[in-house]
Task: structure prediction
Amino acid sequence: MSTDYQRAREELGRRLRELRVESPDGRLTGTELAQRLGWPQSKVSKLENGRQTPTDEDLLAWARATGQPAVFGELRARLKGFESHIRSWRRQLAAGHGPVQETWNTLVSNARTMHVLSNAAISGMLQTPDYARYIFEHHTALQNAPRDTEEAVRARMKRQEWLYLPGKELKLLMHESVLWARVCPPEVLVAQLDRLLGVVGMDTVRMGILPLDAPLRLALGNSFCMLDQRLVVVEDWHAELWLDDDETIALYRRVWDTFAESAVFGADAQQVIARVRRSITV
Result:
């Protein structure tokens, strides 16, 4: 969770405390407010101290219970202002993966350079349709999202047209463990590795592999994508973090550069991919 996000959550908590203390009905204690709301007192405490993110329903109930329903609009605006940086999969996938992929297409279309670190799966920018299909199916099941696999696959393949445009550059780092991960049947993985072998040498792609035995100066963390120097998107199980402040972007660039020092590129990267491919029995 970003420092900016936590600070904003704490500020919202202080505003909630003000509303409780300044209630037109007279100052309410945390216990009294909890009783009015039918909540455990611990929930009131967590919200006021920035240890829990309220929902719209929580904020509406709070405003009404403190006798100040008119402030709900202000509270909701505060929540949306900082929550926009944490885009939960539950909300994003309410209509399926297709709309999420189209949002990414718009983001990428405006970028000239992408720095990507992939520690979980082959980067979507280089996935084959079959590999992408299995990834979407797995995550649809995990998130109980609407099943729109084919729409999502088409959108992801459309995004890859970016690789063939002049002036674009994908700078990609992948840990070797990603190449071994059996997230799809062997024949699909073989075709995916062939795709990776084929892009080595493209003038718009600089792909590095972090070998399993490479010395690392940092422990592997979450996968992320940096679009130019304006936005970093970090992937987690519950959400994507969209980070756009200069200090954070500079940090993630240092992370990428640090891992790049341990990666192999060009023919050496091809050798690692080819070695993995030869080990797969179809």
